[in-house]
Amino acid sequence: MSLGDAFGLTDTPNFLPGYHGSDGDTRYPSPRSLRSMGAALIDLVLLVGPILALSVLVVVVEMPRTYSYSLLPIPLVIIGGNRILLRKWVHASVGELIFGLVEIRGRDGAWPGWGDLLSGRAAGRDGVPNIVSVRRCDIRSRGRESDR
Predict the structure, then answer these.
(1) In the chain, N or C terminus with fewer CB closer than 10 Å?
(2) How does the average pLDDT of the chain come out, rounded?
């Protein structure tokens, strides 16, 4: 790495940004801002939609109170499955799967763990985001993390 690369004055391929998946990271060259917005919109619909649908169903369809209480876990299962379990198993939520994105850890480019998923996209102690969304086609095989 040259001195110009260290200060960000040149665009040589040897210059690596502060964390994996940041803007200008040559390891993940595909643009993803529009895809991320579309994925966030779908995930927002999956977050709010089941709650609204359940409330409309309970109000419009007059059913016994015991049946309406049995429907309460359905939105929690949908939201928890999309926001936590699916992200752990396939490394993306439903919206990110539709738009071809996956989530990686910002500090090392590996798949996020349970702690990273529960803390979300907030910056860690070193200022690096815990989770970063990148295009699935930019991820190399899991065993070759040193190439990233």
Answers:
(1) N
(2) 77
